[in-house]
Amino acid sequence: MQFTAAQIAQLLHGTVEGDPNATVSKLSKIEEGGPGSLSFLANPAYTQYVYETTASVVIIGAAFELTGPVKTTLVHVADAQGAFAKVLAMYNTIKLDKKGISPQAVIEAGATYGDDCYIGPLAFIGANSKLGNNVRIYPQAYIGDNVTIGDNTTVFANVTIYSDCTVGANCILHSGTVIGSDGFRFATGPDGGAKIPQIGNVVIEDDVEIGANCAIDRATLGSTILRKGVKFDNLIHIAHNVEVGENTYYAAGGVVAGSTRIGKNCMFSGQVGIIGHLKIADGTIIAAQSGISKDTKPGEAYMGSPAFEVQKYRKSYIHFRNLDKLVTRVEKLEKAGNAEGRSA
Hints:
By secondary structure, the protein is of the alpha/beta class. The protein folds into 3 domains: about 5-95, MurE/MurF, N-terminal domain (Udp-n-acetylmuramoylalanyl-d-glutamate--2,6- Diaminopimelate Ligase, Chain: A, domain 1), CATH 3.40.1390; about 100-315, 3 Solenoid (UDP N-Acetylglucosamine Acyltransferase, domain 1), CATH 2.160.10.10; about 315-344. The protein has 5 helices and 40 strands. A 12-stranded mixed β-sheet has the order 8-11-14-17-20-25-28-31-34-37-39-40. It has a 10-stranded parallel β-sheet with strand order 9-12-15-18-21-26-29-32-35-38, with no helix packed on it. A 9-stranded parallel β-sheet has the order 10-13-16-19-24-27-30-33-36, with no helix packed on it.
């Protein structure tokens, strides 16, 4: 992949300062740039590198004013970071643009796939599954029977999608993730726990991205649902019959217990745990390592374990940090009182 500075400027609606024919074939950080690389400057903390870099082309904000000579060709744009993100997306699209069906793939009877699909070596597509157009199934992925996958979805290597699950269009499932494993339900008794069959499925709507090594359990009955635009980091477990609302973001290490309903536009930091059968309101924000044990209010931020409203938590934490001083003070007062009592 090679582009000239002029082509980059045209793509990003920018202007060139320097050699419009300067050619790039790779991307780099500005402090590591070299000949043939394209970089960008958006953070003022890295300003010094624009004067030092040997990158062939640097994307830079239109408002940036040089205070010295540069060795590189500049492409001035309205938003340097946004423009470079656009370049990264284009680069990634080209890099991942695989087509064709490997002769080593296994496609069971009744399975169908649309135009321009990629099914890699040792991938398995179960009976009666349906893949849309431009779907990419990487090597050693397992797609069970009666699975539906929408257009432009990417399933990376070693992903497992159990039978009867549905994945929408424009989704990304990263390596090691399991969709549709059994929910954790047992009927306990004097003779031990009897497994309760999990006969529901998982429904993932459009534009969802799920990180590596996540587990989304199938429902006991009905569906576990990830609504449109949900974004998961790595190592997240969603239990049976949970519903996650539109455009909710969840950082790594999170756990949601069964039958909880999460609203839309929520933001959860890393290692957040949520117990079962709760209602998490729209716009809820939860700080890292918090444990949610009750329903939340719309737009509120929560912190702690068990978590409560973040402002109350911060006030309580001040008292907690002073607890040792308070205990020492109380002990001194008690000793003084006891001594006074004995002297009387």
